[in-house]
Predict the 3D structure of the following.
Amino acid sequence: MTSRTVVLATHNQGKVVELREILGSALGEGVELVGYDGPEPVEDGDTYAANALIKARAAVAHTGLPALADDSGIAVDALGGAPGIHSARYAGTRVDADNIALLLQNLDGVVERTAAFVCAAAFVAPDGTEHVVEAVWNGEVTTEPIGDGGHGYDPVFRPDDADRTSAELTREEKNALSHRSKAFRGIAPVVREYFGV
C-alpha cells in the first residue's frame, strides 16, 4: 500500500471494479484504491448520505486509512420514493432478482413508472475530513428485466439519456452516465485535495 491509499468501503466486488474504472484517472497519479475486508456496519441512517458516511467511517476506524463509500438505490415516484435507501434489502433477501421481482409486482398495472437512481458518495479521512456528493440518474422502470449487465436494478431501469436499460449499456456507457459515476467524479477533487495531487 502507498501513502496515498484509499479504501473502497464495500464488500460488493462488482462495485469495486466499477469504482476503479470510474475513478481511475480522476484521482490523479499514485492514488491506490483497495478493497475492504472489515466488518459491515449497521446502516441505520435515514438518508443515502447518512448511510454512506456510516460505511466510510467504519472503514476508517477499521483500517486507519481514508475511505470512500456510497449508498445508492432506486426511488420510484409511484411508490412514494420506495424502495429508496432500502433498495438492497427491499425483498428481505439481499438478492437482486428478488428485489426486482418485488418491485415489478408492486408496480403491476402502474402506467406512470418514472424513477431515479440516487447515489451519495462519501469520503472520510482519519483527520476528520468528511465530504458527501449526491447525484441522480433519471429514468423509468420497465415492465420486465432486460439485459444481463450491471447489477442491482439495472435490468429494469431505462435512463432518460439512453434508449436501453442500464443492464444493456456497455460498461463505458454506464460509467459515463450513471448516478454513481456522477457522484464519485464529483468527490474526486476532494480526494485529490486531501492528498495534495
